[in-house]
Amino acid sequence: MDLSRIPCGSGEFPGGKADGWYIYSLAVAKVAYYDWSIDWVSAAPDGFTRPVIGINGQWPPPEVHIDKGDRVIARVYNNLGNQSTGIHWHGLYQRGSQTMDGPSGISQCPIAPNGTFTYDFEVSLVDFPARRLLTRAKVNQAGTYWYHSHNQGQYPDGLRAPFIVHDAAAPYAGKYDEEFTLTMTDWYHEQMPVLLHQYESTSDQSTTDNGITAPVPDTGLLNDQVDAKIKMQPGKTYLVHMICHSNYAGVMIWFEGHNFTVVEVDGVYTEEAYVGAKNIRLAPGQRWTFLVEARPDASANYAIFATLDVNMLFPPLGLPYFGFAGNMSAWLVYDETKPLPPVPTFYAFDFFDDWSLIPYDREPILEPNHQIVMDTGFQNINGITRAVINNVTYLTQKVPSLYTAATVGAEYSSNPEVYGQVNPFILNYGETVEIVVNNNHNNLHPWHIHGHDFQVIQRGDPNVGPFSGYWANISSTPLKRDTIMANKNSNVVIRFKADNPGVWAFHCHIEWHIDSGLMATLVEAPDYISRDVKIPEDQIQVCKDYGMGYAGNAAGNTQNVLDLTGSNSQVQAYAQGAMYPPAQDFYKRKRSTLGVSPASPLMNHPRRSRS
């Protein structure tokens, strides 16, 4: 693939100028410069016109392709007018660039309207210098990733796209002729601030996770459209990057007449695993990469069938698939003059189990010396259904947690109290950490970690209850990925090496649940952070523009960091998502400005009935 000309935006670049297309070459690696304006755009991917969040006036946002070893500089300008924003680079470790990870309230402040944030990081391999672990470093990563807003429930309104890192030395290099990306997502006609208010406010608790369901998507999309068509050529082998962008529902997908071989999951190379004609199940946040052989001739076209996971959407009702609005179809087109085949009816699914995958590097099972147990579920707090970890719901604080770690001093950065009610867990550098997640809830939860991938030691079947001991047949080379589904009323056990100093989120990747508090904060090597991490001046300005603190404990106290007076410890009586300014009560806003730019001519619309 020729990466010398990729749409990158336009603008001034240190030592040159980005004209919207060029990636600038340095002596060893290239610099991919992106100048992005986050905008409101009108789109109708399923025929229903609504405001969506795009980039540079276009939606879907641009798909990014870079090479391993490249440096990425993305200048992000918030042109939304009525919402804050931010970008998370999903799956990238951000070694040495901890302030670039992107989740608001953890590694940065939200970008206020008319504000700018410049992300600057590298994607390659370099060992940390022994004396200073937090100098700019590169990460040994390639494969399938994506970028998305990680700001107060925003990305389901459209701010997300693939981020593909190419590797000339990949184990499957030379085994394919062409490649394409296939995204899948649930899709809502209403905008997230309104839906979050329905889900999290005392005045409108119309749906809850303890009742029937969170707000239900109106449809599903493949490549952000319905009835997508993918051009195929007989005899070729394709590398297929699959990404689940969903807010809520996982996705099952099936390809007619084509067999697949897995070569990567979540940016981790695997030994080649033949899938055959089995169904693939992707949880929100997960990625799979496959080799697929095209048919030998162009005598027919073939169907792709996908469906939103009804087991997640409707537990325990078990609604039937027939006529389900979450059913999706697309086609592999060999000959445009030939008819498209009908999509078959499924009466049962035969899933390929990722548990059988073996990492290509065959990393031996890690032996832990630090275990963390997280009992997760939902509780009614002040009349609002909130997610909890060990009976505590996550609440965003007045200072981003990474900034707290960097500014309270080495004496206090290892004290979890200074971080406030963010479910903080302190990890010492070099520890092998085991996290046990007990899912005490009648639904599935995809757990995603920032700053790492992890070994999956075991994953309980549905309804086996909390962790009660290790299996006898644990793999000596466990599956590795960065997002794993925990079955309902069950448990999952993961392990990783604490070798990446930073403050990293560990959370369920269902956006409703992130916003309702199903998130923990991993404060990794805080002594190194307090010594080496300096908050850039332009990021401090972002905090000032938003009206958020950038130093001190969770309350912004820099004098007595053990005094948490003023930190956020109470669940608010309303939810507003990313609306700006952030302090206004939902009902004090005019309904017509909730989810659209004040300058937009677009009108809001009634919520479609779920009957």
UniProtKB/TrEMBL annotation:
The lineage of its organism: Eukaryota, Fungi, Dikarya, Ascomycota, Pezizomycotina. SUPFAM superfamilies: Cupredoxins. It comes from the Eukaryota. Residues 39-124, 136-168, 178-307, 396-526 form the Plastocyanin-like domain. Belongs to the multicopper oxidase family. The keyword Transport does not apply. PROSITE patterns: MULTICOPPER_OXIDASE1, MULTICOPPER_OXIDASE2. GO terms for biological process: cellular response to iron ion starvation; reductive iron assimilation. The keyword Metal-binding applies. Keywords: Copper, Metal-binding, Oxidoreductase, Signal. One of its GO terms (molecular function) is ferroxidase activity. One of its GO terms (cellular component) is high-affinity iron permease complex. It holds the Pfam family Cu-oxidase_3. InterPro entries: Cu-oxidase-like_N, Cu-oxidase_2nd, Cu-oxidase_C, Cu-oxidase_fam, Cu_oxidase_CS, Cu_oxidase_Cu_BS, Cupredoxin, CuRO_2_Fet3-like. This is Laccase.
